[in-house]
Structures are given as C-alpha cells and as structure tokens.
Amino acid sequence: MHLSASRRPSSWQRRDTGLTVRMLLSFGILTLLYIVFLSALLYVGLDFISITIIASVMILLQWYFSDKIVLWSSGAKIVTSDQYPRLHNVIERIIARNNLPKPKIAVINTRMPNAFATGKGKRSSVVAVTTGLLDLLDTEELEGVLAHELTHIQNRDVLVLTLASLFSTVAWYLMQFGFYSGGMGYGYGYGYGGRDRNNAGGLAIVVIVAMLTWVISFLVIRAISRYREFAADRGSAQMTGKPAKLANALMKISGNMHRMPTKDLRQAEGLNAFFIIPAASGSTIINLFSTHPPVEKRIEKLMEMEASMS
Amino acid sequence: MSFFRKIRKSIYDSKNNESMIDSEAIFSLSSATITLETRQRLKPTGRCALIVKSTSGLYFKEMKDEIQRFLGISKPDLQFDYRTAVDSYGYLWLILAGRTIEDSLAAITAVVDTIQEKGFSSQILASIFEFRPVRELENSNEKNNNAGMRYLVYNYKSNKFYPFVPFFGERSRDTENEMTIMATLQKEIPFEKDMGMWYPLWDLPF
User: Fold this and answer.
1) Measured CA distances, A251 to A205, A246, A260, B155 (Å)
2) Chain A residue with minimal CA distance to B187?
3) Complex ipTM, two decimals?
4) Burial class (CB in 10 A: 0-12, 13-18, 19+), B38
5) What is the mean predicted confidence (pLDDT) over A8-21?
6) Residues of A with CB below 8 A from B9's CB?
7) Greatest Cα pair distance in chain A
8) Model confidence pLDDT, tens digit, residues A192-208
9) What phi, psi does A2 have (nearest 5°)?
10) Which residues of A are less than 8 Å from B187 in CB distance?
11) B23-60 pLDDT, tens digit each
12) Catalytic residue, candidates A141, A143, A149, A229
C-alpha cells in the first residue's frame, strides 16, 4: 500500500534505500519460509488439497498479522499527538469531516518521503508516514496523502490484495505439485508402458494450466493494485476537495518536481534541446508489471478532477 | 503515437525545419480562451509577444523593417499597439497589445508568415500570451502590476502550448496552477504533456 514508488528516484531518494531493502528482505524471508514449509509438506506426502488449505491458512494468518509484520519490518513507531501534533491534527480533521474511525499513527525515521496504510480492519489499522514526507510536504499536501491512505483503509485494500494473492499462491503450488508428480510419472513411464505415459501427459497439462493461472493472476493482482491506487486518489480528492494538492504532493514525492526545467527557454534553445527523440516513457511492459500506475497518469487524473471541480 | 511514429516524425521534422510551423495549431487558442474564462476565471489581457532570435545580418534587418512596416499598415485594421524590445539573450521581442485575442493572433500569424517567407523560420522561438484572474481585472488600480499573471507559451519547434505561472518577483513557479491550466486545456489545444519541456521565460520585457 505504498503511496508511491518512484520510477525515477532522484539522488536524495536513492541515498536512503534502507527501508526498501529491509521490507524486501523480510517479505523475501517470509516467502522463502512458505516455500520451504510447503515443500516439506509435499515431501512428507500430503495430498495437494490439504496443502492448499494449509497455504490458505498461512496467507490468512499473514493478513491477520500484516500490520505487525509491516510495522516490524519498516521500523515504524506508533506516535502520540504530543510527539507529532501537526500529523495528528491533519488526520483528526479528515476523519472528523468524513466520519471515519481514527487509525493508529506511526512514523518512520527516514528521509525517503513515503506513506503507507496497513491493518486488517477499519478499526485496527495503522497509517505510517516517514519523517522525510513530513519535512517535504506542506499541511494541505500532507492532508491529501493521508486521505489517500485512509481511503485504502476504507476500501479494505489489504484484504482485497491478500485474497487476490491467495489465488496466485494456490496456482503456484499446483504448479509445483504438478512438476513433482509429473517427474515421477515420467520415471514410472519406462516400466509400465502406455497408460502412465498418458498420465504424464495429463500432468503436463496441469502444469501448463497452473503456470498460465499463476502468470495471469500475477498480472491481475498488479492490475487490481493499480486500480486501487486510482481509487484511493479519487477517495482522497473527495475527502479533501483538493485533488491539486495531492497531485502536487505526488510531484514532490516522486521527484518529478526536479524534472521541471529551471533553465530559461532561450538558453535551452541554444542547446538544441528540442530535437531529442521523445523518450519511450511508460512502456507497456513496465506498466503491466508495476503495482503502482505511473505518477504522471495519477497526476493527470487528479488534475482532471480538479478541473471538473472548478 | 507509437514509438516508431515518434521517431519518424522527429526525423521528418528535423529535415523539414523550414516548413514545420503549423499555423492551425496556434489558432486553437482563440476558443481555448473561452474555456479558460468560464472554467478558471482567467481573461486574456490582449498582451502577447513573438520571440525571435535575432541575427546581425542584413537580411534579418530587412525583414525586421518589413515587419514594422506591415504592423504599421495593419494597425488601424486590427486595433493593437506594438513595440519591440531586445532582451539580454539577444532575442527580439515583438510585443503586441491587441484589443481581442483574435486580433493578436492574426497579427502574430501574419508576422510569422513574413518571417517564414524570408527564410528565417528556424529563428522563431515562441510566442507568449498573457492571462489574468478576472477579479483583478476589475480592480483597475493595479493594471500595470504583473502580479498574478498566468502565461501560455506556444513553442514553434514542437507546435504545442505549455503554461508558465511565475510567482511575482521570484524566480520560482506555481506548478499547481500550471497543472490546473494543463488539465483545463489539454483536450482543446495541442498541449505539451511532458512537463520536462515547460521551460520558463524569466524577466519578460512586458
């Protein structure tokens, strides 16, 4: 549920990769644990229906503890209104106007500007922001970002994505199961003749179907995730009535502000800046795999909302 | 536009440097001003300018004289004032103050045609149009104050418009306001969507 993953990180963002590494590492370890555990179950000889059930339970457990896992892996600390009065004030203003339950508020001590929301339900959720974000944004921009995160909570996006990934994980194990048994089937095939070779062919189909399912669900999850980002932007615009502020915040966070030329047109013209072939920005393949829509697209949509409001 | 079409177009454009000015595109501004007024409460002040890189040659001087002569003749027809200025970068500014945006556009297009005929079209940099919030227009006390002005820049190299909203008296710009202008106009006029191309024009000699 990260607010923004910059595609072109600027130098001051690149310097602070600690948070990203830490979160990637902890989720990597978790995934590894899953695979080791389920492979062990497979080795012991459990049939694949019970393995599917166990995998589902594990994913639901991950969802149930998601806030704790995320807070632990990101190093976020829950803060009181005495420690961060401005942050608490802004959130209280949004929730009072929109009649929402108040989430726990956490701060991560890093210069990388970012924010995320996590938690299983509307009542036990956490909104975390980095100190970099607090320094970078003015109060109205911060309001836009926090409203975006509160919309993720309202929309139960953590649950939606956990359920979506359940499907892909099941397909993944189906695939592994197929490989495993498929290999066995082939081995027997030499001894028992035609009947088992047919069986091996059937298992190959299972593997292919599972593989396809996994690829498709992988892409679908990403599509859902991108769509939920747009939905959260829209929700933020409705809550605050100021989509331009969120757009401006996105500009700042993504480092796109630095792309705004400072050089005068008359100087730039001398450098022949206009004959550069336009870069193929936002290519389709990158779009297909990313969980966040390109910042430009989000800003464009937000500004359309702004224009239609006036 | 696909990537290959983009490449082809940019090769084509760089080869046909002399004939790439699209006079249709700039006239779309005439209807866009109505949108700006109804949706953003921004009115054109009628002030605009054509920015041309001057050269020291004789032909350029001849062309300049011809433009001055042409503007002198058409002045009563189109109802505008004009003056020229040269900025610190050595660019010639043809500053027009028309009664309506249509008059200014007609004058600018005619001047651009003259420059093209003389073979100097690659010297044309941009034209710039001034807008101000409606509320401030009624307050005539500060008519010559440049505070709160918004600009649309037309880049003749890309045939696209982009916004320029400087904070008054500062070398910084109001990006939020610029993005609002883009959102309002991008479907109506050829608009530069790449914000990396929104080059500022500081110290306007208006």
Assistant:
1) 47, 9, 10, 24
2) A304
3) 0.73
4) exposed
5) 44
6) none
7) 82
8) 444 455 566 667 777 77
9) -65, 145
10) none
11) 678 888 988 899 999 888 899 988 999 999 888 788 88
12) A149
